[in-house]
Amino acid sequence: MNGNAKLKVKPLYLQVRDAVLDRISSGKLGSGGLLPSEADLHRELGVSLGTLRKALGVLQAEQLIVRAPGRGTFARSYQRDQADERFNPIRRHDGAVLRGLIKTSRAKLVMPKAAERAALALSVGERVVRFARLRSLEGRRFAYELVCLPERRFPHLTSRSEIPDDLEELAKSSGVLLARAEGKVSARVVPSAVATALSLAKRTVILCLERVVFDTQDKPIEMMTAYYDLKDEYCNLLMR
């Protein structure tokens, strides 16, 4: 084995993490299913308890499992309220997740822009599926989200009459498990098309969020550029 090959070997705890994750992604362990005990996994996988616990800690940080003291460790349940909490950063003034009424445009198969190609690590010639979501609350349009997905990960999306407005539901329907997201927030002059969609005056400055979501293999699977016209609401960011 040459030096470059050695560098590609995963640490043991990540190999254990992948072995446990396979139970979830393969369907052997359904949404909310109970994992074997640490003692059973320790014996089955043939690793130390320290290595196993480190692997489970990674899965917990990725929000793929939930540890319940006295009850055990469970695969994360993909219920609508939990999914909203995980990837939706917009909150009401009281801290509750804000969804609003959602109108989604028809998905289109297009060539990516340079920023999309870079963010999604696409090869030359790869296409993306792109669509927009418009969110409103009590008649006020407050969010415009432009979503971009790799065609190879979501090959039949353009043929669907309806697109799930929750990212985790959409990903799960295509056999994709989500692990984490990265984003950056800035104040920007709203693009003219977005200003029209949100009924804003031209040159209005509003909040812009650029987000990339990664799967459990740390591959980027979604790029979203969102514009938010917030009043009493706010953008909730987790920092670590």
Describe this structure in words.
The protein is an alpha+beta fold and 240 residues long. The chain has two domains: 3-75, Winged helix-like DNA-binding domain superfamily/Winged helix DNA-binding domain (Arc Repressor Mutant, subunit A); 80-235, Chorismate lyase, CATH 3.40.1410. The protein is built from eight helices and eleven strands. Strands 4, 5, 6, 7, 8, 9 and 10 form a seven-stranded antiparallel β-sheet that branches. Strands 1-2 form a two-stranded antiparallel ribbon. It has a two-stranded antiparallel ribbon with strand order 3-11. Strand 6 and strand 7 (140-150) form a beta hairpin. Helix 2 (12-25) crosses helix 4 (49-61). It is globular and about 65 Å long. The relative contact order is 0.13. Residues 1-7 have low confidence and may be disordered.
Overall 3D shape: globular
- Termini distance? 37 Å
What value does the average pLDDT take?
A: 86
Q: Mind summarizing the main beta sheet?
A: 7 strands, antiparallel
Under CATH, the topology of the largest domain can be stated as Chorismate lyase
Named CATH architecture of the largest domain: 3-Layer(aba) Sandwich
